[in-house]
Amino acid sequence: MNATPSRDRDILTPSQLNTLARDLLEGAFPLIWVEGELSSVSRPGSGHLYFNLKDARAQVRCALFKPKSTWLTFVPRDGLRVLARGRLTLYEARGDYQLVLDHMEEAGEGALRRAFDELRAKLAAEGLFASERKRPLPPHPRRIAVITSASGAAVRDVLSVLARRYPLLEVDVLPVLVQGTTAAAQITAMLRRAAASGRYDVLLLTRGGGSLEDLWAFNDEHLVRAIVASAVPVVSAVGHETDVSLADFAADLRAPTPSAAAELLVPSQDDLHRRLRTLAARLANLQQQRLRGAIQRADRASIRLHGLRPQARLQLLCQRQAEGLRRLAAAWQRRLDRERARLRHADAVLRSAHPSRRLARLQARVEGLGPRSRTAIARRLSGDALRLRALARSLHAVSPLATVARGYAILQHDDGRIVRSVLDATPGDALDARLSDGHLRVRVEDPTH
């Protein structure tokens, strides 16, 4: 065979080959999503992020360039499972096959754990997990509700422990889904209905163990708020002892397992029997003590009664009664005498103030006032007449009529205006001249100053 290439063959350089391979990859693969585990994570000074994305059998090189690498909401580290979106390409300089990303987020358990921590911090800041608001459980509940899957092992464990420890308890199993997309809504609705029914002393929220994703329904915010708002105490027993849910933090009591929750909810019948026997013995002792005390008091009373001689005591009481009756009669007599004296005094006061007597006194007074009033009126009239004549003389002295009587006249216009000066009249004016014995009509000819 001739190994020398012929002239008609297409001979490529490494760079041409890598270019063709890159074009083939980028054209054949659109924007894709890949889920895997981070390894060999590095972030050089350029700010770009380089790492491998691997699973159990293979790995692929990846790059997340700046600034998108600075927008991540988590810190990439080896071993973290992520979900990445990007385009497949080939780095021509080295011939490396790689995935250039434009988005990356935590996947699976990591994302759930981050969401769990964020919601827990938010609800804790609102005080929903505060120990101060949690209530103690009733020591002897009569009826409880178990909210769980009707077919799970948790409900069988709970019912078995409750029946063994406290057979008097009434238990209602309220079946719900405890896993899946609709589980949280079902659990929340059932818890609210049970709390509002008024039938139960305690609500038990429980299920068996599982992964964080399996238990995610018990990390629902609405369920947490329903637990906090419940008027009935809530016990949470979700998963195994190492499993923790937000329902555990919100509940009034958190039990590590369903069986442990049943142990905490009710007392043991053996303990109750022992306590009853102890209380019965204490009651019997107390009754014996009280009976002995009553017998001793009766004996002492009998001795005192015998020493007091009831006949003498009765006679003394009769004497005290007679003395009391005598003193009571004397007191009533004194009070009666006082009331009679008050009545006599009131009668005398009324008689002295009788209207007929007062009327006679007033009549005599009126008769005595008549002559005095007439004398006073006559004296007053005489004085007033003297003063009136004096005033008349004074008035006449200053009256215009007195001036007219001495030969003078008062000139007036027809409208009543007095002529006091020659300036008050003009030639041709008709005036009225008032004299002492009548009036004259005059006409102004030629006023002179």
Radius of gyration: 63 Å
User: For the record, what is the CATH homologous superfamily label of the domain at 140-267?
Assistant: Response regulator
Residue-averaged pLDDT? 85
Provide the succession of SSEs: HEEEEEHEHEHEHEHEHHHHHEEE
Beta-strand residue fraction:
15-25%
Termini separation comes to 177 Å
Count of separate DSSP helical elements = 11
> Order of strands side by side in the largest beta sheet?
1-2-3-5-4
Query: Fraction of residues in helices?
Result: 40-55%
CATH class of the domain at 140-267: Alpha Beta
- Structural class of the secondary elements? alpha/beta
Which outline best applies? flat
* Total E-strand runs: 13
Largest sheet: 5 strands, mixed, barrel
The poorly predicted ranges are none
Layout of strands and helices, then pairs:
Elements: H1 14-28, E1 32-42, E2 49-54, E3 59-64, E4 81-91, E5 96-106, H2 109-125, E6 143-148, H3 153-165, E7 170-175, H4 183-197, E8 202-207, H5 221-229, E9 234-238, H6 246-250, E10 253-254, H7 258-265, H8 269-308, H9 310-352, H10 355-398, H11 400-405, E11 410-412, E12 430-435, E13 438-443
Parallel strand pairs: 3-5, 6-7, 6-8, 8-9, 9-10
Antiparallel strand pairs: 1-2, 1-4, 2-3, 4-5, 11-12, 12-13
Plain-language structure description:
The protein is α/β, with parallel strands linked by helices and 449 residues long. Among the domains are: 94 residues, Beta Barrel (OB fold (Dihydrolipoamide Acetyltransferase, E2P)), CATH 2.40.50.140; 128 residues, 3-Layer(aba) Sandwich (Rossmann fold); 47 residues; 41 residues, no CATH class. 48% of the residues lie in helices and 19% in strands. The protein has eleven helices and 13 strands. The longest helix has 44 residues. It starts with 13 loop residues before the first helix and ends in a 6-residue tail after the last strand.
